[in-house]
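for the record, two folds in this file. i put them one after another cuz i was lazy. first one right below, seq on top, structure tokens after. the second one comes after a little note so u can tell where it starts
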Amino acid sequence: MALEKYENDDDKIQEKLKQKTWNEIRTNDSWAIFKIMSEFVNGYESMARIGPCVSIFGSARTKPDDKYYLLAEKIAYKISKAGYGVITGGGPGIMEAGNKGAHNGGGTSVGLNIELPFEQHFNPYIDKDKNLNFDYFFVRKVMFVKYSQGFVVMPGGFGTLDELFEAITLIQTKKIGKFPIILVGTQFWSGLIEWVKNVLIDQEKTVSPDDMNLIKIVDTEDEVVEALDNFYKKYNLSPNF
């Protein structure tokens, strides 16, 4: 049972407000549980064999001639040459650039696709046996964080910010390891970082100053690989493809 489809927002709201019998609620929820379970099982079985990988997040709307698309491709290429696999959301834009760079570098290229009403379709640079499809965002996000040993975050929109803060939260609460989170593009990210420092840390004190140590901002592909290598050397680890 896939996620429900609606013609417009009003139809979606009307459906959610419609009174349903207990039997209808129980039946729909039960089938949804089986669908969720199947996505987790398929994801775990497919991802367990991929080896050390880095997730690359970024906008699906970035065009192939955009400077960040070209930079993401270079980053993924260098990452793959350094021995790391690449995981993306599997779609166009920055995701395509990430998979393309990994593919051209001869590395593992993973795509975690999800059906969206606008821009999402899988790109042609994903390894055929590592092209996974999801209906549920939260299952897909588990696969990103469970099987990544680093996060490279390119410029993006709400989805990219969601993935970034998910990774920060899980590391900050010690639910996953303290893997590197690398923001690419000082010009793009500086406003957000200043807001976090000025408002969340200094003004409202809702974030610990130490949490900023979880994030590194860079501008080049060499800096990304250096940050990953420094992390691996710190823990006496090495990629093993």
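(here's the note) second protein begins now
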Amino acid sequence: MRPLAWLRVQLCVRLVGIALPLGLGGCGETSLHASERLPTETDPSDPPDHPAPSDDPQATSPTFYVEGATLRDRCGAEVVLRGVNEMVAWSDDDGFSALAEIAKTGANAARLVWVSTEAPARLGRALEAASAAGLVAVAELHDGQGDFEALPRLVEFWTRPETVAVVVRHERSLLVEIGGGLGDVVERSAWEEGYRAALQSLRAAGIRAPLVVHAPGFGNDRARLLESGRAILDADPAGNVLLAFTAWTGTVPAIVEDLEAFAAARLPVFVAEFSAYSIRECPTFRFDSSPFLEATARLGVGWFAWSWGGVPNSTCPGALDMTTDGTLATLTDWGLEVALEDPHGLSRTSDLVRPPCGP
């Protein structure tokens, strides 16, 4: 929980437009790029039940990991992701400017929207930007939205040797979201089998970081995620999977009810996307974020607001952007609400993942 004095400083930053640097150390090192040190090699064809110990003497795991319904850092401390989406695949500087600004909100994570047509080396640059900002990165492939047939193509991107090298280099502070919102209406057996094969392929390629499986129905089918969640978790040879969904459709009470159902089932889940409006009615149907944020704080559920605005939204222009130019000084009403003003927003509930087991 952030102290109120820290919040007052952030509000002053908002009002006068002062850039406040966020100084965070690396994991057991003085550099902010501690994630670039390669871990000890293991046989990717035989992934362990639990990650092998890290070469950092203060850590027990080389990566973040899932235990029950909880995400933990490399030293075993619970981590609740609180962050912002940014479409870094289309940014001019691979996200360096935007991610540094996002960190000033108090976020501990950023969801990096990426596409499989971009080079893995550029993704590595974006992950360096997240590390430099002290943010846990969730790298998500966005170009399979609504198309479950895209899953093999996305798996091919993640399992390329050059992509695996990037992921391994940054695995200390990285979650890999295989694809966001794949499929519209997908049969349960096909969806479960598709992701079972995908999880096994990524593990066989040598990826040890937590993997994220996103709900079908453009990310909104929470019922499928609930009914198939346990099967998906059991399908990962490394036992290191989180579930995710988007909150673009449905009423806030219905979403909260489903969050409580995930908690009761002890399924690890976070909300990958939500914004100021329901996407299908934007800008006429306002998303009532306050009770939603209260529920996520009460249940310890992570979330990522959509979206920062360094790369502006083309859908419902202006209404979904948290800033007008990607800087904290230009927070919109929506951005100000979710980042600084709501009692359960970023600045009030986001605990930094600190050394020795942070980014």
